[in-house]
């Protein structure tokens, strides 16, 4: 059976013109202002994808490496692989569990449950000698932006907080959803039948990740365009809203832990 709510066309609009974001900045107000400047206002069903970097900056999730005292372990690892021992130390502090640590690469589980390179600690697009951490609670950040935009425009769009993750078995990185508010991050097709009558038994689509990845095509890494508006997306029927945590695999089902 086909889904009568399936979208056949999407528009993805990159929203730029943002000033440098500093701790304490009002991200929801900045996003709203840039939408107005672009002649846009949220419509029912719209989804906004916001890169986590601007949220982390606004929330003060920045670490000055000059304030970090590296442990002997961090120093030994950094020396072996030509890394900054202070940055290695920050990665270790942000890690709940180290999955793999070799060849100068650290794959770690964060306090959020994400398994990613360097526990999400990133030195790009910040001042020299500073690293950026993930938001403490990306779902809370997404919900706050959604609520504020709803108050301002009368329509609350779905909001995705995105970050770039590597992928097992594949080269390259893609945007994924680490925070979600106002939409279903997963679409569960189990129990439905394809046109040939086959019953789907394992098909759960990561809608949040798909939307985040699509948005990156207009956001770009180097263009200073941290927000994208997705228009025309229609969620599958009977898919309640969820959070980014829904996209984190249960450790009991993870064959690689």
Report on this model:
It is a single chain. The protein is α+β, with helices and mostly antiparallel strands and 257 residues long. It has two domains: 11-61 and 136-251, CofE-like (60s Ribosomal Protein L30, Chain: A, 2-Layer Sandwich), CATH 3.30.1330; 62-132, CofE-like domain (CofE-like fold). The chain has six helices and twelve strands. Strands 1-12-2-8-9 form a five-stranded mixed β-sheet. Strands 4-5-6 form a three-stranded antiparallel β-sheet. Strand 8 (158-167) and strand 9 form a beta hairpin. Helix 1 (27-37) crosses helix 5 (138-153) and helix 3 (72-81) crosses helix 4. The longest helix is centred in the middle third of the chain and has 16 residues, at 138-153.
Q: Helical element count?
A: 6
**Domain count:** 2
Per CATH, what is the topology of the largest domain?
60s Ribosomal Protein L30, Chain: A
Rg, Cα atoms, Å: 19 Å
Number of strands: 12
Average pLDDT, to the nearest integer? 93
Query: Which regions have little confidence, pLDDT < 50, spanning 5+ residues?
Result: none
Shape: globular
> Biggest sheet, strands in spatial order?
1-12-2-8-9
């Amino acid at each position: 059976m086909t889904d009568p709510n399936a979208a056949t066309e999407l528009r993805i609009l990159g929203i730029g013109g943002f000033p440098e974001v500093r701790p304490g900045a009002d991200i929801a107000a900045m996003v709203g202002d840039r939408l107005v400047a672009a002649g846009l206002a949220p419509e029912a069903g719209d989804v906004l994808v916001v890169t986590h970097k601007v949220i982390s900056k606004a929330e003060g999730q920045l670490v000055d490496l000059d304030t970090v005292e590296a442990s002997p372990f961090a120093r030994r690892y950094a020396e072996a692989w030509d890394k900054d021992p202070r940055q290695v130390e920050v990665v270790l502090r942000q890690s709940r569990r180290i999955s793999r640590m070799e060849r100068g690469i650290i794959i770690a589980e964060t306090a959020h449950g994400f398994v990613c390179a360097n526990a999400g600690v990133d030195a790009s697009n910040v001042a020299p000698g500073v690293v950026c951490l993930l938001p403490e609670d990306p779902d809370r950040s997404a919900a706050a932006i959604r609520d504020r935009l709803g108050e301002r425009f009368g329509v609350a769009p779905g909001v995705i907080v995105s970050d770039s993750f590597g992928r097992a078995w594949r080269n390259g990185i893609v945007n994924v959803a680490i925070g979600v508010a106002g939409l279903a991050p997963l679409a569960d097709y189990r129990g439905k039948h394809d046109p040939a009558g086959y019953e789907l038994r394992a098909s759960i689509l990561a809608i949040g990740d798909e939307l985040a990845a699509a948005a990156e095509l207009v956001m770009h890494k180097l263009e200073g365009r941290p927000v994208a508006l997705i228009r025309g997306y229609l969620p599958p029927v009977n898919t309640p809203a969820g959070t980014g945590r829904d996209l984190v695999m249960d450790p009991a089902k993870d064959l690689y832990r």
